[in-house]
TrEMBL record:
GO cellular component terms attached to this protein's record: cell outer membrane
Domain named RagB/SusD: residues: 276-558
Protein name: Starch-binding associating with outer membrane
Family: Belongs to the SusD family.
Record's keyword terms, sorted: Cell outer membrane, Membrane, Signal
InterPro entries associated with the record: SusD-like_N (IPR033985), SusD_RagB_dom (IPR012944), TPR-like_helical_dom_sf (IPR011990)
Location(s) in or outside the cell: Cell outer membrane
Residues annotated as domain SusD-like N-terminal: 96-238
Gene3D superfamilies, A to Z: 1.25.40.390
Main localization, broad class: membrane
SUPFAM superfamilies named in the record: TPR-like
Pfam families assigned: SusD-like_3, SusD_RagB
Amino acid sequence: MKNILKINSKYLMVGATLALTVLGSCSKDFLEEVTYGEVPPSEMTKAENVEKAIISAYSVLNGQIDGASNAYNSPASNWSFGDVVSDDCYKGGGGTGDQNQIHQMELYNTTPTTYDVERKWMALYEGVKRTNEAMKLLNASEDFESGLKTQRNAELRFLRGHYYFELKKIYNQIPYIDETAETVSDYARSNTEFTSTEIWSKIEADFQAAYDALPSSQEEVGRPTSFAAMAYLAKTYLFQEKWQAAFDATTIVMGGDYGLMDDFQSVFLPENDNGKEVVFAVQYSVNDGQGSNYNGSIGDRLTAPGGPFYSQYGFHRPTQNLVNAFKTDAAGLPVNDNIDVTETDSVDPRLDITIGRPGIPYKDLDVLYEANWARDLATYGPYGPKKRILSANSPYHVTVWPYVDALNYYIIRYAEVLLWRAEAAVELGDLEEARTLVNQIRERAANSQYVQTLDGSGNAANYNIGTYDTVWTDATDAMDKVRMESRLELAMEGHRFFNLVRWGIAKEVIDDYLVVEKTRRSHLTNAAFTQGKNEYWPIPQEYIDSVDDGLVTQNSGY
């Protein structure tokens, strides 16, 4: 388990048993009543029980909603929703039949009955429901200390904002239900009751309210701060192309106690996962007494890379296209030619921190990653995940089934805030501000510890990364550079597809990707992205069937 920064926040672990004694989770019925478990209704507004209800609202952050191990169908990291459907990753696993519904997502054959589409919807609306119920209990509590009540309400506003933000970016036109809901029928709502703009406004309002009332720091590290709320508000502005608002919001965040860690690889160690670069994260823990280590990264348990130290689940596999994106020229700048990297090519050092490549040492295990680590090598190629996989020597890594670890999932990290600001700066015409921000991130990568050969005699590959030393004068070119940096820095963190969609280039990028990638990977032969449809997932058919006829409108194309 983690033993740093956790003594006062042990009940913020995402699957905390204590939380689940208060509010039950949704079953397959999308409109199931909230159950109150072991606490009598007459006792629910007592302060200690309200706190449990609030913890229950946190507990859905990891995507686990019913005590089952299949949070990988609704992962907090969005590895299937944000990476597998992009140009960054393949599904992986034991062939196309293994979790075939994710394979269909990869081919853009998603349907309203796709299991993962249902599970993700259920998990996020379970989060909404728990936050709403906790708000009502909190407001009704007479013995809850006044100042703390204000803070806890702000935390709930933050959590609800998060759950709705995820719903909006995945499903787009969604039902919106707030704490005034009293009965099951109140959750059977139309998804056209509010316009897209109105839904964004409601999400903004939650994050603004959270910012206004939250403290700038928290003793219990799993709880959001005012700066985390402002960062999320910046992201909300970014998705709506409110460039000045986004830029101004990042100014506030940059005034907080954040910064880039000196070493890129160290960002992704459990010892540092509440460090200065992490703005808000899902808190994970293992070996803490929770059954099957469900407080750990249960949604990512299929991503174990195989080999002599790990289970061979073999999902979330980097594409050849992503590997090639890390190639650099003589000046250390991205080449972006999508020609396969060779042993003599120079590459960005983040490549071998992010991706397991044959012939390159894997973590600190004193062993080279080999192609045969990869499950179904013939289908998915030789590469494996690395950035968010812990060393098998780590005490925060579980060696038995299921494969989980205690590395938090970073919903927002500071490098991403800098990239948002750079993007907004380009849109506002301040290209030099954008260049400076991108160079900060590249300088950190350049000054990081590079992966070394097994004998420690030198670098494991021809690493070369430079900064942009020429003034940026063309806005289109500047934006291309910011977007490329976003891909390299955030690779395999679940953001790529959503960025392509909000940039308005998903069709263009994915079509170009598939033309070449189909010649490399036959499992993509039938993949085809349909503009105006595949930018979002369908509204689950089970939800449509659970409410009155005609109340819910299916997303375009489904």
